[in-house]
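Weekly structure sync, notes
Attendees: PL (lead), two postdocs, one rotation student
Agenda item 3: pending single-chain targets
PL asked that the sequence for the first pending target be pasted directly into the notes so everyone works from the same version. It is reproduced below exactly as submitted, 345 residues in total.
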Amino acid sequence: MNSSQGSTLSANVAGFVDGSSAKREVSFIDSLPVYVKELIAGGAAGGFAKTAVAPLERIKILLQTRTEGFQSLGVFQSLRKVLKHEGVRGFYKGNGASVVRIIPYAALHFMAYEQYRCWILNNYPSLGTGAHIDLLAGSVAGGTAVLCTYPLDLARTKLAYQISDTRMVKSGGFRSYHAQPMYNGIRDVLMRVYSGGGVRALYRGVGPTLTGILPYAGLKFYVYEELKSHVPEEHQKSIVMRLSCGALAGLLGQTVTYPLDVVRRQMQVGDMPSSLNGEVRYGNSRERLRIIVRNQGWRQLFAGLSINYIKIVPSVAIGFAAYDSLKLWLRIPPRQKTQSISSAA
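Predicted structure, written out during the meeting:
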């Protein structure tokens, strides 16, 4: 070891011993605005949670859109079929687009919720500080996040909707279940959709999405905070309590708004060859609901809901655990403090 390397090592060790390195880290983290910390925590938590449940999300989309070969299958049979024909990678088809979408979506959703909530408490004290504030702030935050990231959700759905058989045949080629455009990644989807219909095409299905996300996002935060209010004080900071309340809130919100999610998915894949015998998939949300009930039956409005029930618990659990851990690491002030400060303003 030469003298320069030795001096550098000594300096590093000395810095570790006297805590100067830790001080620099503390200084950098503490210099970040709270809203930036909320963006980082929310985005990372969303990415972890979405990847964990990606296989179930893929199957849900296949059932919602009545993809050929999956109409009459259940959850586990569909999982086996995807594994057989596409391998493990088939479970994550469209997950890249999903994660690219969910990171900014979750980041914006959490951050906007906190900021909207503080803004309401600061500017409209007459509204009080109950869980109804969470309903209002959560709804507006959900709408904000959807409008900013919807084209990525459209790309995720189109990629997940594609079905191909990757088993090798004698000719050395591949077989597919039906002829349909095969997109090559997120950028390809966005460019081809835009070239075919402009900005309006990138937002096809945004109507039912907003109609569904406004009550869902609001209900999720409302029920979560309402349930927490009935938990004894000594258990308020328990991560198990947070995960349990969050899971129940997610389940309730999904059940109420799920039919609109089915409408959204079918509208998103409306320009792709379908298995609905030439049925037109366009139109507004109300028209699409009537078509689904008339031609596919009311049960189709809840196609894939069982998967949502299966995936919502681990998704919420992972999301909340990651968000809470990152909030602690980033030293984001506890929500109770933010609420009290805002209420006093």
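Discussion points:
- The chain has one domain: 33-163+184-274+283-330.
- Residues 33-163+184-274+283-330 form a domain with the Mitochondrial carrier fold fold (CATH 1.50.40.10).
Action: rotation student to compare against the earlier draft before next sync.
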